[in-house]
Amino acid sequence: PSLRPAVERELLPAGPSLPAARPWRVVGQVQGSYILVEGEEGLEIVDQHAAHERVLFERSRGSSPVPTQQFLIPVQLMVPFDRAAALDRAIPALRELGIHLERFGERAFLLRGWPAPLADRQSRLGFQEPVGAVAEQLLEGEAPLEELWREVACAAAIRAGEVLSPEEQAALIAEWKATEEPARCPHGRPVALRIPWGDLAHRVGR
Description:
Blueprint: E1 24-30, E2 34-39, E3 42-47, H1 48-61, E4 68-78, H2 81-89, H3 91-96, E5 100-103, E6 108-115, H4 128-139, H5 145-156, H6 166-177, E7 192-196, H7 197-203
Antiparallel strand pairs: 1-2, 2-3, 3-7, 4-6, 5-6
Helix pairs in contact: 1-5, 1-6, 2-4, 4-5
């Protein structure tokens, strides 16, 4: 289950309102994991985790360093001993990602700031997994900042099994369709399965 309460989800940042007319319509969510989208050319079955991962990845890709939202009260994180040293070495690189981390003991770190593009996505209980994903990546050696950001975006994205309201579904699809590379998540996995209307009609014998 997700560590983020549904009430804390804000899928669209403040900004200009979306156009009233869209060439697509969200039909609904199935199995708490996929969003069905009716389009002019066919039906899309969208993996909500992969779509949100793409959205989060692109939100900050164009800015370096990534802007940070500072916390009034730091969040203490505990990591395994074998990851603590790697994470400590990566503190300067993490600042480029907008993650402000400070060593606070053998296994403890204080999280003082979080990437602004993700700040509306995480509850105070939800930072351990993204930071842990970065630490895991660093155990294998130096990693490009873009690769670290892929790990953060993946760990922070909506999970399979999270039930979204109709408004959240529509907001996610709108942001996903506005990305530069909507076909695949940052790790290269397909985001959606598309079934042309002609193929669907053929399969049911129309």
